[in-house]
Write a structure and sequence with these properties.
Blueprint: H1 3-21, H2 26-38, H3 40-50, H4 53-85, H5 88-106, H6 113-121, H7 125-162, H8 164-174, H9 179-216, H10 222-232, H11 241-253, H12 257-291, H13 300-314, H14 318-340
Helix pairs in contact: 2-7, 2-9, 3-4, 4-7, 5-7, 5-11, 9-10, 9-12, 9-14, 10-11, 11-12, 13-14
């Protein structure tokens, strides 16, 4: 056996055991790696001004905690606390009243009576409440696990950001392609992830603020509903509807029809049309031209479908994983075309 074959076999064997060794931390490492790549361009700009990698990495880690992880933790704890304190009998009674009020309101639409009756027969309020309570127990049980995962991701993110140059250079040296092509491969993938990450984060905060501030005028918890709307906006097309429609239905069922109509119109016109359709493309364009070091040239429609597919396949983190995989594949295909011409 040639020495090279022996070394390759030994490397593959050791790689398998390394994967097994780090298996409990693979998810945290992978998420931290994607976040590091996505924020690399902004980190480099910050570090040029501060000129201290430890301080820059610390600022970035604290910012990531405040903007990304604390809102998720706040939602989990808020829901867990709410469902643990809820009176199940009173909740069932209120939901039945809302159900009956909605049916009385819709009963005037004669051609939909049979359809509505078939739907209402399948709605078991008691079972729904039991599932909500069990969901709260699930949140409470998994909140500790989430906090542990969050801490691990932040620790890996800090060190990956701190030693990003050394890690990137080491990986480039391992690849069997020249340095310029390796830079193209890294920069293209990093640019796409940066555009997706910054635009999603910015628009989620912007739309969440618009919705939360508006609902606070009606006596709702503006912070909680703003955070929830921000996360709901990550779901393409129907994300905002998930939040404002139940609120509008609740207002209509409790007799405040004006509030329901006002909330629906505001959410559709101000947030869905003005903010999402007109302002969001301007934000993405600004990020692509001013913040990202190498503006991305990948079709925006392709990025959109990559986000949708990523969310469907990988869940929440798919919004970064999907575009990262697509952009990396496109970059590799360009390099294959280049090398095939030799």
């Amino acid at each position: 056996m040639k020495p090279i074959y022996f070394l390759i076999l030994l490397a593959l064997l050791l790689f398998y055991f390394i994967i097994e060794l780090f298996n409990p931390f693979l998810k945290s490492i992978f998420v931290a790696t994607l976040l590091t790549i996505a924020t690399n361009s902004l980190y480099l700009r910050l570090n040029q001004k501060i000129k201290n990698r430890v301080i820059s990495s610390s600022i970035f880690t604290i910012s990531m905690t405040a903007l990304f992880f604390l809102p998720i933790l706040y939602c989990i704890l808020s829901f867990a606390t709410f469902f643990n304190q809820v009176d199940q009998a009173l909740l069932i009674q209120n939901l039945n009243e809302i159900k009956n009020s909605s049916l009385s309101f819709l009963a005037e639409i004669s051609f939909m009576q049979d359809f509505l009756q078939n739907i209402t027969k399948q709605i078991d309020i008691g079972k729904i409440v039991q599932e909500l309570v069990s969901f709260s127990a699930y949140l409470g049980k998994n909140s500790a696990k989430f906090m542990l995962d969050m801490i691990l991701i932040l620790i890996f993110f800090f060190f990956f950001t701190l030693f990003s140059n050394q890690i990137a250079q080491y990986l480039k040296d391992l690849t069997p392609i020249n340095s310029d092509d390796a830079n193209i491969l890294f920069n293209e993938s990093s640019s796409v992830m940066s555009v997706v990450f910054y635009s999603i984060l910015t628009t989620a905060i912007f739309q969440g603020f618009l919705f939360g501030a508006f609902l606070s005028a009606f006596g709702y918890n503006g912070l909680l509903f703003g955070v929830l709307y921000g996360f709901a906006s990550l779901v393409p097309v129907i994300g905002g509807v998930i939040m404002w429609l139940p609120v509008a239905i609740y207002e209509a069922a409790t007799g405040t029809f004006f509030n329901a109509i006002f909330i629906a119109i505001y959410s559709i016109v101000v947030i869905s049309i003005i903010a999402d359709t007109f302002i969001k493309p301007l934000i993405i364009s600004y990020i692509n031209k001013r913040i990202v070091k190498t503006p991305t040239k990948i079709n925006s429609l392709l990025i959109f479908f990559a986000i949708v597919a990523g969310l469907g396949t990988f869940g929440f983190w798919g919004m970064i994983i999907g575009p990262a995989m697509v952009s990396l594949f496109v970059s590799i295909m360009h390099l294959i075309k280049k090398y095939s011409n030799f």
